[in-house]
Amino acid sequence: MADELDESEGAGSERFVERIHQVTRTLVADQTFAGKLIAVAALAQRLLPGCDGAGIALRIRDETHSVAVTNPLVLEVDLVQYDTGEGPCLAAIEGSHIVRVDILEADERFEHFAPGALDRGVHSVLSMPIDANDRTVGALNLYGSSADAFGPDAERLLVPIAAYAGEVIAGSDLYAHSLDLFDEILEELATAGMIDSAIGVLMANTESGPDAARRMLEEAAEARDSSLRDAAESVLREQQSHGRDETGRPDADEDARPDDERR
Hints:
- With 263 residues, the protein is of the alpha+beta class.
- It has 2 domains: 140 residues, GAF domain (Beta-Lactamase, 2-Layer Sandwich); 83 residues, no CATH class.
- Helix content is 56%, strand content 14%.
- The chain contains 11 helices and 5 strands.
- Strands 2-1-5-4-3 form a 5-stranded antiparallel β-sheet, with helices on both faces.
- The longest helix has 28 residues.
- It starts with 13 loop residues before the first helix and ends with a helix.
- The N terminus and C terminus are likely disordered.
């Protein structure tokens, strides 16, 4: 079990300062952590011909976040689950078991999640729990545009891949230092992934380069007086609802609702 910071390690204590230095050094040595998780998702997608997108979602401080995705579709469908509070990914994490949906239209388990996923062309889902240190910390999720995209053979292929993802997480030096600090790093990964996906959407919609698309996102965030992550989430939600304007730029006035209403 990771050694977590206790109350005696206040912000002014020498031990706390040393722990921060430890984490800083670890970050430099552990730069491949995010790359490994993305590689796991990409491998899963390549192994299964019926898979149109794969991703890894992890439970961080009782909330689920997407930390590695192969394309924006995965993040869009993940957001549907987070918004509705149900779906194969969440069920796999909460129940620590594999969840497979062969024909989403006919599945009655996720009546709130299904319409949003179907709107995005997803008809099959396979979610595999990821375990680290004998507890379920997340899920490997695969989405397919055709029915019956994932059968028993898919589950068999994914078991060792999900196990490797768990080893990457448990074996990270960050994880060993502090679960709290590890969660903070995962939140940063989730934010970076959402921003990258939004930039990709803007590039496709406006035929712009990455620098120009990022400037669009920064301008939208400044216009809303919001964070870059919130602006990125807005872009992805606009993509979901096909509510883009003619230029594909994020609408600075669209996201005037309070944060709690958007989530």
